[in-house]
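**Protein fold record**
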Amino acid sequence: MTQPAGARFSSYFVAVVAFFVTSLVVSNIVAVKLTLIQGLVLPAAVILFPVSYILGDVLTEVYGYRAARRVIWLGFLCNFLAVVAIWLGGLLPAAPFWGDQGAYDRILGTTPRLLLASFLAYLVGEFANAMIMSRLKVAMQGRHLWVRTISSTLVGEGLDSAVFITIAFYDVMPPGVLATAVVTQWLVKSGYEALATPLTYLVVNFLKRREGIDVYDRGVALNPFSSGK
């Protein structure tokens, strides 16, 4: 089923978009903290960032690729706004009695290289995830949701991890450590979504019933920059 061209966005759609954007922006803020879990060094964002992929799957499965494409770009712009606001906040003169400017700069200040890595990894990973979900749904005639969500996540999270780690830490980490970091993040994030599969089923089925839609992207172009079909 396809949504009418002039259909209004439902409160459910708005809620999914809000959670998607929030998980993305918050993840990029808390990612500055590195944690040690079972001998693995991971950014604190690992607790929330995979949620954006889960919600990306929900958006593509229920509302279709065109809706997901708009939301991915919205998330990019909101994250960019957050980065600019944090940067401008750091430039403002600190009050004489406030002695935490150094902490602000250390925690929230991000190098241009890390920002570039983060932005590119997000776009490549999220669009790959949405494209694969879209095409597999048509090819599988809407069956085997778990196969589609896990397959799209393996590719999307893999590209996200590879692009971010490579751009951010090339010539900083030895090649072997770099490769290990990519694989570690990829497996942890993908495992996160695999474990969340039952929750994904619940959300998808709930939204399809309440919205009365189940979009198949037949004939829809996958160009990330397209504003139409």
Residues 11-211 form one domain.
